[in-house]
Amino acid sequence: MLEGLRVNMPSLWKLRLSMLAALAIIITLSTLVFAAILSLLQVGLIYIAIFVVVFNVLQWLISPYIIDAIYRTREIPENENPRLHAVLENLSRKSGIKKPRLMLARIPIPNAFAYGSPIAGSRVAVTEGLLKTLNEGEVEAVIGHELGHLKHRDVQVMMVVSLLPALFYYVGYSIMISSMYGRRKEESSGAALLGMGLVAFSMFLTYVCVSFLSRVREYYADRHSATIVEKGAQKLSVALAKIVQTAKKVKVARRETQHLNAFKALFIADPDSAEADSMMLSAMTSGDQKLVEEILSQKLTWLDRLNEIFSTHPHVVKRIKALQELS
Length: 327
Fold this sequence. Notes:
By secondary structure, the protein is α+β, with helices and mostly antiparallel strands. The protein has one domain (9-326). Helix content is 69%, strand content 6%. It has 13 helices and 4 strands. It has helices spanning 12-41, 46-71, 82-95, 128-133, 136-151, 154-181, 185-228, 232-247, 251-256, 271-280, 288-296, 302-309, 316-326; strands spanning 73-75, 101-105, 112-117, 121-127. Strands 1-2-4-3 form a 4-stranded mixed sheet, with helices on both faces. The longest helix has 44 residues, at 185-228. The model is unreliable at 1-10, 252-256 and 279-286 (pLDDT under 50).
């Protein structure tokens, strides 16, 4: 179903059309499923929906403080790294947004992420590993990518669509409990089983659609970086290649920081797939541009394409190819 929405060419209309199509599928699916469940079970699941929505909105409002605690971030004073602040100020102006707070995540994995909420403000975080791995131009391209997420309000969009899998989970749990302890088990068991089946299928399909939407928005943020950074497409291509390649070198650190995957969708590169991608690139160690050229020569296998369906980020080969087409 989603094959026809593949984003191989980085044209702006294709990106927008893909995002609208994914949102339409998610909204339509959720509406149909809830209507079917309510008609089958004749129960007031609206209270569960209200609880889940309120809970997730509150979580979103305080999530920057949670992220700061998990990733051990601190704000970088301007006098500590004035050049990085100047880059952020310049790119924020080009993006037409207010300069976000610049944060440092004290973890060795090279990555970056944008996050925020109305009460905490917008923030862009870079990891210690990123600053050690990339040069200034590549870091600039990565920051441009993260500012693209803030400009396009990706944090808010993904928060809203991510509510649906959580909502389906709680609805399914409620159905299971009511079927186990309901007074009329015999009469309600058939409807409950059907309802649980609908919920399980909806959770799976919604997760696939949400992951697809997340991947499209990564392409969109890549395009933004290429637009506002001089030679941004080339710089970001090298940055992504280095991030993936370095993943293998910090394998031990990855094991020690598995709990950091809680908010992996925020990252510029998926920490789960980075190590697998690095194995494909492990022999490519001769120069930055050579590394990019080697990546462009790779062909995706059917297993790569299958794994990408459930990933929040596009495969690194497809991302770099799209960036090279932009440049």
